[in-house]
Amino acid sequence: MSRLVAEILGVSLWGPGLEGWAASEDVLAGRTPHIPRESAPPAPALLPPNERRRTGAVVRLALHAAQEAVAASGLDPASLRCVFGSANGDGPIVGSILDALTEAAPDRERIVSPTQFHNSVHNAAAGYWSIATHNPLPATCLGGHDSTWAAALLMAMLEVDAGAPVLLCVYDHPMPAPYARLRPVIAPFGLGLVLAPPSGRGLAHLAVTHATTAPDSETAPHAPGLAALAAGNPAAQSLRLLEHLARREAGRCDAGYFEGSLRVEVTPA
Amino acid sequence: MTPMPIAAMAAVSALGTGRAAHLAALHGRRSGLTPNDFDAVVGGWIGRVRGVEEHRLPEALARFDCRNNRLADMALRTDGFAESVAAACARHGAHRIGLVVGTSTSGVQAAELAYRRLGHDGLLPEDFDFAGTQDLASLAEFLRAALGARGPASVISTACASSARCFIDGARLITSGLCDAVVVGGADSLCRMTLHGFAALELVAPGPTRPCDAGRDGISVGEAAGFALLERDPPSAQATLLGWGASSDAHHMSHPHPEGAGAIRAMSEALDRAGLVPGAVDWVKLHGTGTRANDAMEDRAVHSLFGDAVPVSSTKGWTGHTLGACGILETVMIGGCISDGLIAGCLGVERVDPEFRSNVIIANQAATLQHVITNSFGFGGVNCSLLLGRA
Fold it and tell me: Do B123 and A107 touch (CB under 8 A)?
């Protein structure tokens, strides 16, 4: 079989004017206009204070989305395998290390902050999540430029295909200033989904196939403001799926995947 | 799990290009480590690949030119790997060939160079191809273009477990029915970010790394690229993936769990998936980075599962710690060791840490190898164990 199926047990998001699922449902359903006001998610209460202190905006964005999705699913966070997807990872930290390497005199030895270095790894958010939730189960972490949403969703569907529920967390944050022209990301956006093998108890059913040709259905969200966000943040490509969930509307929410596509069919319960 | 054939393998590291060069260095106990001439102020020794500076990508793929993709290209063009992938594309159709590759830092070295050329506006120069070099996707896009694979693709980045984790996610693409073959592996290349980062953590050994030595004092950073072709029913195979295990320490971002709880979990799962008992394992190839903490933790974890009967050793004395590439590089080396009946004892060890209780091997041994476990651990508390067997 080359078609993967799963059920959505929990969903969350955080973005400009999209402060959690409950506060965003009307915007996603087209019942109220989208007012893109940027705000930071609350600090991750699950982390012990000494670890929380070491987290920056990117990890906090991911952890908040993860936490809310798992809470909505009603599952124990420590019972979920994880897939974390992000095109840019922690761009601000990588940028800060690049600044330090560039500005320091070439004969200086200690120029990189050790905490920044271990926070610069692409799996930093997954690492903090495992610490916060005492979760011994594995996480896979990936990035794929503008194919990140498709690649991460497919990876989560593969986990479900292997028989286990999974937390999928996809997030992207604006890059540091030098990248403004080369890699514009207009605002932070993160989402969380808890996916599980079909049981008939979830919010919606998902079916996914891979195609070698570009999407043949609309990929952009319906609302114009959300379409701009989806075009300006790789993680926000998921907004079309989130709109379908909020509208409780069956349909296609394909995603571009390199030169091909992920064909995604959603059927709300 | 159903055993997953590995139809082809190739690697490049400080030991040279191709499987024969790696096996010859292992047999001859010749290290590839040299004093750090990449960023000398950091000191220590490094596992630097020769010939990267001169290597050129095919003209049509020039936009992907960076140290990391050059390493990947060097690996593809050795041991007939690209030809093996082409043959798999012909057998199954290019759309049935997936790609799951790992890297921790991708082409960040290209960004290090571009940062020296920021404009008066503070912006990176327009000729810096971010997507083609620094972005994680660069490795996948380069490889898909070079190999013609058109199935699903992913770039995994789980720090030093990146290219080991690819075997898991790659095998899943086949068992799910989405693919008939998947290219796994990856690349990590020398850059100032990792050299200075490990120096800041005080984890760089002043001399060549000495995993498991009583006086071990850190890692030697290395670079490598390597690939393996997982394939359903291949016409021939070089080794088999029999099991895998993965876990999270849930303990600390850069310190391993002191008792190795995550490592034990990963190795146990790999045994369970393969349907094997610990006594059936002929060699545990350690992650064995040469840091005080990793090697002590790993010894405890290995001893708790295998006691002192099974030979254990690290190959990082040869290649250095090739970070996200170590999983694939060491798998390729193990493939050769299985064929040659070789257990490579730790290199550069004068005295095994007397606290260690597992059976650390410091000289090469001839052995018939049926089952080998290889460990890869990383920042963020990630652990991956692969269980490899004969073709």
Answer: no
User: Is residue A22's pLDDT more than 60?
Assistant: yes
pLDDT > 90? residue A106: no
Q: Give pLDDT tens digits for A108-128.
A: 878 999 999 999 999 999 999
- If you measure CA to CA, which chain B residue comes closest to A132? B250
How far does the CA of residue B112 sit from the closest CA of chain A (Å)?
6
In whole angstroms, what separates CA A95 from the centre of its chain? 21
Distances in whole angstroms, Cα of residue A208 to Cα of each of A154, A170, A220: 8, 17, 17
Instruction: Quote the pLDDT of residue B244.
Output: 98
List chain A residues with CB under 8 Å of B218. Answer: none
Q: Taking 60 as the threshold, does the pLDDT of residue A1 lie above it?
A: no
A–B CB contacts, 8 A cutoff, strictly below? 221
Alpha carbon distances (Å) from A34 to A17, A28, A231, B111: 7, 8, 16, 36
Residue numbers in chain B where pLDDT is lower than 50: none
First CA to last CA distance, chain B: 16
What distance in Å separates the CA atoms of residue B214 and residue B204, rounded to the nearest whole number? 16
Contacts of B169 (CB under 8 A, 6+ apart): A140, A155, A158, B100, B154, B156
Tokens coding A173: 């944050």
Contact A168, A152 (CB under 8 A): yes
The answer to whether the CB atoms of A112 and B199 lie below 8 A apart is yes
Q: Are B292 and B216 in contact (CB under 8 A)?
A: yes
Q: Quote the ipTM score.
A: 0.98
The catalytic residues of B are 160, 287, 321
Q: pLDDT-based confidence at A224, cuts 50/70/90?
A: confident
